[in-house]
Amino acid sequence: MNVNIVNLGTMEYSKALGIQEALRKLRIEDKIDDTLLIVEHNPVLTLGCRGKVDNILVSDEFLQQQGIDVVKLNRGGDVTYHGPGQIVGYPILNLNNYDRNVRGLIWNLKEMFIRLLREKYNIEAYGLEKEYTGVWLGDNKITAIGVSISRMVTMHGFAFNVNTNLEHFRWINPCGFVDRGVISLEKLVGYPLDMEEVKRYTIEYFCELFEVNPVQMSCKELKNILEERAYEDKKA
Predict the structure, then answer these.
(1) Which of 29, 56, 166, 181 has its CA 20 to 30 A from that of 213?
(2) How many domains is the chain built from?
């Protein structure tokens, strides 16, 4: 089974969210194959459907001065930070192709980073269940995971701290935790990583865990698909 791989580069969160929503509609209608979007975002805070505004520790005025948006979402989880140096992945998958297994989806998303860290960097991480969903080293999270599912098609996904500015996490209680922290791959290995190399590893392990074949799709090809859909919607 194939999965389209699209590297969006650096993109504003709201624009990437619109792309996800459009692709999910296309996937529900079976007009596009499963797709994985890989992207970095400019600094932004996202708040899950059960998130608490109190877990944002800085004022609205501070966020406005920094040009930081707060985006409320329909995914699980609480407040999360996205920013440069963080690999964010948005799998648009039809779970009918994966035994309709939601727990298996989350397990795969965690396991891909556990294996990547162990096999590429000799770092032992682990995954936890329920409110601690994600990939951890001790009490520090290195990968946040939060998905939503509609008509068995997923969106949202994971955020892997590679060269992320960890100081920005001081703006929030990450994922709502006051007794746990965050960590980056850069912090663990002691030097900045080549982001494109780590993106390749991320795609490699995603395809391995989900047992799919990667098909590279350019941003131009993706744009053409979305423009064609917008034109059809306008005619209808």
Answers:
(1) 29
(2) 1
Catalytic residues: 175
How would you write 205-228 as a 3-class SS string? HHHHHHCCEEEECCHHHHHHHHHH
Q: Tell me whether residue 230 is in a domain.
A: no
Query: What is the Cα–Cα distance from 125 to 118, expressed in whole angstroms?
Result: 7
Assigned domain for 40 exists: yes
Confidence of residue 3 (pLDDT cuts 50, 70, 90): very high
* Placement of tokens 């965690």 in the chain: 110
What CATH number has the domain bearing residue 192? 3.30.930.10
Diameter of the chain by CA atoms? 55
pLDDT per residue as tens digits for the range 71-123: 887 776 678 889 999 999 999 999 999 988 899 999 999 999 999 999 999 99
| DSSP-assigned letter for residue 105 | H
